[in-house]
Amino acid sequence: MDDIKILKGNIIYTKTKDEFEICEHGYLVCKDGKVEGIYQTLPFRLGGEPIEDHGDCLIIPGMTDLHIHAPQYTFRGTGMDLELLEWLETNTFPEEAKYKDVLYANEAYAKFAKNLKHSSTTRACVFGTIHRRPTLVLMDHLERSGLVTMVGKVNMDRNSPDELREGTQESAEETVEWMKDVQHKKYKNTLPILTPRFIPSCTDELLDMLKMVQMRYQIPVQSHLSENLSEIEWVKELCPWSEFYGDVYDTFGLFGKDTRTIMAHCVHSDEREISRMKENGVFIAHCPESNMNVSSGIAPIRKFLEEGLHVGLGSDVAGGSTENMFRAMAHAVQASKLRWRICDDSLEALTSEEVFFMATKGGGEFFGKVGSFEPGYEFDAVVLDDSRLAHPQELDIRSRLERMIYLADEREVVGKYVKGKEIDLS
Ligand code: GUN
Ligand code: FE
C-alpha cells in the first residue's frame, strides 16, 4: 500500500530563483515521503484519501540552514559589538570549551534542538565542538527532533586556547573514533560531516590526515572561507605557499569536486577563488546577519548567482543572533541593497524570490532533491498561519509570503513535515 498524505492550503514555492509557483487553495500530495504533485482540483483516483485541510494557511517547502553552530546557541545575541577574531577569542572559544562537560552539553543541546524543531528549518548543517561524546549527545537530540541534519565534530589543532586545542594526531584519531561511534548509533536522519573549523585553527598536517578520514568514510565537508580581511591575511602568513585562501582546502582535497563541501561566508573571495568554487561545485552558505554583526562585510551574492554557483543561506548562530531562517532571508535582501547603494552598483539587490529560493531549494540541494514541491522532491513542508499579523486590506499569496519573510517567527509555524513525516510541535 502506498503511503499517501494530502495537505490542502495556499501552496507557494520556487523551481527557479526567478519566480514563485503559487497554487491557491490547492492540494499538495505526498507519496512514500516524496512530492507526488500539486493539484488545483484533486484527481479522482485520490478521492478516497483523507485530507489535512490547513484552511487559509500558507504551505511552503522546509528551509535548509546551511551553517549553524549548536554550542553557540547559549550566547546568541551577546558580544555583537566585536569583530570576528576578537569575538572568537573572548566569547566563542571560552563557551565552546565548556562542552567538554557532557552534562552541560546535554542541557544546552536539548534547548537548541527543541527550538530548531519549532522553527521553519527542516534541514541543517551543524557545527558541534572538538569534543567527541558531547557531539554525539548533540546528534542524539537532533535525531529525536525528526529533522534531517549533518553534524560535525570540530577539528582544531592550532591558534586556539589550551582547553580548546587538540594535538594533531589526537584530532584525527578522535574523528575516526567519532565516525565509528556514529556508525554504531545507526542514526536515520543525522549524518556526520567533516568539520575543520577554519585554516587558522588547522595545521597542514591535520588537513592531510582529515582527507584520509574523508576518503575512508566518504563524508562531506563544511568549513569557513574568506569571512574577514584579517583572517585572510592570517591565512596568507600561515600558508605562504597557497594561491588564495580556498586553495589551501583544495590542496588537501577538502574543497568540492568528488567531496561535497559547504564553505560559509565567502565575503571577500577573489576571482580565482570564485572560479575554483565554481569548477569544484562548492556550496556557499551566505550568512548575512553574521557578516554584519561581526563586521565581516557583505558577500557579492548576485555575482555568485549569475555565475551559477550553489548558494544557500545560513543563520550562523551565534555570529547570527537567531535560528529563524526568515530573518536570514530578510537580512540577505537588506545587505544586498546596502552593498548596491554604498559599494557596488553593478550588482543589483536580491529579490524576495531569490532569497526564498536560496533558503529552500538552493541550500536544500546539498541534501539532494530537497527544498521544492516539484514531483520527486523529498516531502519537507512547513505550514504557516499568518493570522496573528492582522491587516484590513486584501493581500495576495505573494504579499503574504513577503510579510512572513520580514515578520514571521516560530509562532507562525503551525505544521511541519520532514521526508513525509509530521513533526510533533506540541
Ligand atoms: N571562523 C572560525 N570559527 C568561526 C565561528 O565560530 N563563527 C564564525 N562566524 N566564523 C568563524
Ligand atoms: Fe560559522
Largest sheet: 7 strands, mixed
Mean pLDDT: 98
User: How do the SSEs run, as a string of H and E?
Assistant: EEEEEHHEHEEHEEHEHHEHEHHEHHEHEE
Low-confidence stretches: none
What is the count of β-strands?
17
Structural class: alpha/beta
Sequence of strands across the biggest β-sheet: 3-2-1-4-15-16-17
List the helices and strands and how they pair.
Layout: E1 4-16, E2 19-31, E3 34-39, E4 51-61, E5 63-69, H1 84-97, H2 102-118, E6 121-127, H3 132-145, E7 148-152, E8 154-155, H4 168-185, E9 190-192, E10 195-196, H5 204-217, E11 221-225, H6 229-238, H7 245-251, E12 261-265, H8 271-280, E13 283-286, H9 288-293, H10 301-306, E14 310-313, H11 325-343, H12 352-364, E15 381-384, H13 397-407, E16 413-418, E17 421-422
Parallel strand pairs: 1-4, 5-6, 6-7, 7-9, 8-10, 11-12, 12-13, 13-14
Antiparallel strand pairs: 1-2, 2-3, 4-15, 15-16, 16-17
Helix pairs in contact: 2-3, 4-5, 11-12, 11-13
Bound molecules: guanine and fe (iii) ion (FE).
Your description of this structure?
With 426 residues, the protein is an alpha/beta fold. It is 37% helix and 23% strand. It is built from 13 helices and 17 strands. It has helices at residues 84-97, 102-118, 132-145, 168-185, 204-217, 229-238, 245-251, 271-280, 288-293, 301-306, 325-343, 352-364, 397-407, and strands at residues 4-16, 19-31, 34-39, 51-61, 63-69, 121-127, 148-152, 154-155, 190-192, 195-196, 221-225, 261-265, 283-286, 310-313, 381-384, 413-418, 421-422. The strands form 4 sheets. It has a 7-stranded mixed beta sheet. The chain has a 4-stranded parallel beta sheet with strand order 5-6-7-9. Strands 11-12-13-14 form a 4-stranded parallel beta sheet. Strand 16 and strand 17 form a beta hairpin. Helix 2 (102-118) packs parallel to helix 3, helix 4 (168-185) packs parallel to helix 5 (204-217) and helix 11 (325-343) crosses helix 13. The radius of gyration is 21 Å and the shape is globular. The two termini are 29 Å apart. The mean pLDDT is 98. The structure holds guanine and fe (iii) ion. Fe (iii) ion binds next to strand 5.
